[in-house]
TrEMBL record:
<feature type="active site" description="Nucleophile">
    <location>
        <position position="378"/>
    </location>
</feature>
<dbReference type="InterPro" id="IPR018120">
    <property type="entry name" value="Glyco_hydro_1_AS"/>
</dbReference>
<comment type="similarity">
    <text>Belongs to the glycosyl hydrolase 1 family.</text>
</comment>
<protein>
    <submittedName>
        <fullName>Aryl-phospho-beta-D-glucosidase</fullName>
    </submittedName>
</protein>
<dbReference type="InterPro" id="IPR033132">
    <property type="entry name" value="GH_1_N_CS"/>
</dbReference>
<dbReference type="GO" id="GO:0005829">
    <property type="term" value="C:cytosol"/>
</dbReference>
<dbReference type="InterPro" id="IPR017853">
    <property type="entry name" value="GH"/>
</dbReference>
<dbReference type="Pfam" id="PF00232">
    <property type="entry name" value="Glyco_hydro_1"/>
</dbReference>
<keyword id="KW-0326">Glycosidase</keyword>
<dbReference type="InterPro" id="IPR001360">
    <property type="entry name" value="Glyco_hydro_1"/>
</dbReference>
<dbReference type="GO" id="GO:0008422">
    <property type="term" value="F:beta-glucosidase activity"/>
</dbReference>
<keyword id="KW-0378">Hydrolase</keyword>
<dbReference type="GO" id="GO:0016052">
    <property type="term" value="P:carbohydrate catabolic process"/>
</dbReference>
């Protein structure tokens, strides 16, 4: 579809940037915070790149005012952050930690004072270790009540000031790593348990949305989904089937359940034949269907291209966590699909396909299938950056990436997509969970590396000045 003229970005478009608690806050054991599963996991040898961890991260907990001042200077109109569950409920439930709650009060108030809309993520992967130990975190149905109580605490405390909320961040990506690839805690590879944990997480997501309706009736809430639109490798029917399988098993399984409260039937039948489908109790599907989100949060980085995978074909493989280009193997599910490089697309040093048109396709597919507004809750480029003399970082590659993806957003708006905003990933540099500090995403460089926290100095990259101009022009000057 070619447009002769493009629609402008709407006046109330959210020009944002994003972060997550574990990746920026640090202060992992300060002011009464409890441990999360990540605080424990990163201490196990070999789990993360060069043993990097978020003990200090970029010390946002202590530098919050400085970071918000930089956001204001840049002209952000939205900032997406997550609350650390064990910072506010050290044991996951029960007594709240007032110092933790007060930190987020200060952050929210500082944002509002600058006219920056807070977008609060309830869960960005930092399950309280206490609940993991007690009943297996997402594997225990008790988490539905505990997560609901935690969310209600935040709705009551911040709902007067925070109107845009994200429920679960990337349940699909996080639990795939946790229960299939063994790369996030609790590091298992068991498909039956994977689908069981997802089913419980869906129910917890639904509980949060139901409580939200009562406690923040004038707010809007939705999950953030890691959406990698599928492409077929060729027009061979076997590749089309592989593509179809990938859409069902890697995308619709989550999106259909969030938005319609139903599992894709072909995928469900396949899992039932193998005894790997989740146990669905009476009332479960009704609870899911009753919790339709207000919008879909879209985390978009790349598309994936699929080809046929025979029953004795390749299984799931670890991703590239070193930045050594070309080191990602083909990965798949025997009998369903496997990934193959897309010869049409350039890739980053971490082998992520750079595909702005894929973002437009993602937005169009979401709109046509679910008829909901979309908030881009993450999009950005993780790359090596070089701090040069005079405190300069010339990240032209990141500007190019973001410019082309924002242009794709404008095409999608012109296609009829109700796009609420764009939160670039990330505001400052962050800890990339498995890739350490060398895979940088920020507009603001943070002077530290894997093991040496140095002075944690903030340095505006070229992309900082570029995004400031984009925002000031309302997206007219990309
Ligand atoms: C998403 C997460 O998976 O993508 C972020 O929500 C993450 O927390 C981002 O940092 C980029 O992924 P990575 O693995 O490069 O850090």
């Amino acid at each position: 579809m070619h447009h002769v003229s493009l629609r402008p970005f709407p006046d109330n478009f959210l020009w944002g940037a994003a972060s997550a608690a574990y990746q920026v806050e640090g202060a992992f054991d300060i002011d009464g915070k409890g441990l999360s599963v990540w605080d424990v996991f990163v201490r196990e040898p070999g789990r993360t790149f060069q043993g990097s961890n978020g003990d200090v991260a970029v010390d946002h907990y202590h530098r919050m005012e400085e970071d918000v001042a930089l956001m204001a200077e840049m002209g952000l109109t939205a900032y997406r952050f997550s609350v650390s569950w064990p910072r506010v409920l050290p044991q996951g439930r029960g007594a709240a930690n007032e110092a933790g709650l007060a930190f987020y009060d200060r952050l929210i108030d500082a944002l509002l004072a600058q006219g920056i809309e807070p977008v609060l993520t309830l869960y960005h992967w930092d399950m309280p270790q206490a609940l993991q130990d007690e009943y297996g975190g997402w594997e225990g149905r008790r988490v539905i009540d505990d997560f609901g109580d935690y969310c209600a605490l935040l709705f009551r405390r911040y709902g007067d000031r925070v109107k845009t909320w994200v429920s679960l961040n990337e349940q699909n990506y996080n639990l795939s790593n946790a229960y299939l690839l063994a790369t996030h805690p609790p590091a298992l590879a068991d498909r039956k348990r994977f689908y069981a944990a997802n089913h419980i997480a869906f129910l917890a997501n639904a509980r949060a949305i139901q409580l939200f309706r009562q406690l923040v009736p004038d707010g809007r809430i939705g999950p953030s989904f890691a959406y990698s639109p599928a492409y077929p490798a060729s027009c061979a029917p076997a590749d089309l089937l592989a593509f179809d399988n990938a859409e069902e098993f890697t995308n619709h399984w989550w999106l259909d359940t969030y938005c319609y409260g139903r599992y894709p039937q072909v995928a469900l039948a396949w899992l039932r034949q193998r005894g790997e489908a989740p146990d669905i109790l009476p009332g479960d599907m009704a609870a899911l269907a009753a919790a339709k989100p207000d919008f879909i949060g879209l985390n978009y980085y790349y598309t994936l291209t699929y080809t046929d995978n025979p029953p004795d074909g390749v299984g799931l493989q670890r991703i590239n966590t070193t930045g050594q280009k070309g080191s990602t193997p083909s990965s798949g599910v025997p009998g369903l699909y496997r990934t193959t490089p897309n010869p049409q697309l350039e890739t980053s040093n971490w082998d992520w396909a750079i595909d702005p048109t894929g973002l437009r396709i993602a937005l169009r597919r979401l709109t046509s299938r679910y008829a909901l507004p979309v908030l881009i809750t993450e999009n950005g480029l993780g790359e090596f950056d070089r701090l040069e003399d005079g405190d300069q970082v010339h990240d032209a590659y990141r500007i190019d990436y973001l410019r082309r993806h924002l242009a794709a957003c404008q095409e999608a708006i012109s296609d009829g997509v109700a796009l609420m905003g764009f939160c670039a990933w990330s505001f400052t540099d962050i800890l990339s969970w498995l890739n350490g500090y060398q895979k940088r995403y920020g507009f603001v460089y943070v002077n530290r590396d894997e093991t040496d926290v140095r002075d944690l100095r903030r340095v505006r990259k070229d992309s900082f000045f570029w995004y400031r101009r984009v925002i000031a022009s309302g997206g007219r000057e990309l």
